[in-house]
Amino acid sequence: MKRNLTIILLLLLVLAEMKAQVLPFRLSKGAGTFRLGIVAGDKSRWLDECELEKTGDRTYIIKDALLGIGKIRLMICPLTDTKGLLVEVSGSRLPENLSLCWAFGACNEDEALSGQGAAISPEACRDNVFSDEENAFTVYYGASMALRVTQGIAPVGSELRLSDARRQTSPLELYHSGKKTDAPVISSLYSWNTKEKCYFCFYKQNAGADYNYFMLPHLFEKESKR
């Protein structure tokens, strides 16, 4: 009886955390914040500033003037083998030459600090150190004797760079803000083929969780069925 009650309580906690998840997406225990935006020509907008419709616990439909009559669909899956998120981005009837611009940062053990405001908290970015390789990156943060690490994977072809979290008025402003800052984030501009799905993954690496981009579609298919 006690075992059954424990299982039910754990399931309720997982469901509550998933239902509470909103844009921008924040990993648990201050492990980082992911903010995603769209770019059309010289105009850009964060998805959390667009018209959002949540359909179920894991799916968002995004509409905006920059998308014309089109829609973007986000599906979010928690990872089974580690702490983290896997995001699938797809669309329908979208304009040509649409790009995705995104940022990741605010890795900080102080969850209250990392969750401040509706954007990536600049104050939570102070001690973040980034190492990137093509479309993947690692964030190091925390005390030197208890260093913590978050891994990130973006679509192949993403142009990663360091940017200034204090300049988030628009995705393009952040992307072009430069790396001379006390609040670094990693950002990217990705020329999206809107007829294809693309994926983002942010996670804690362990023996059972060490991913590359080519693995993400299959991983998403598996996780989305749980």
UniProtKB/TrEMBL annotation:
> Which InterPro entries does the entry link to?
DUF4450
The domain of life is Bacteria
- The protein's name is DUF4450 domain-containing protein
The root-end lineage is: Bacteria, Pseudomonadati, Bacteroidota, Bacteroidia, Bacteroidales
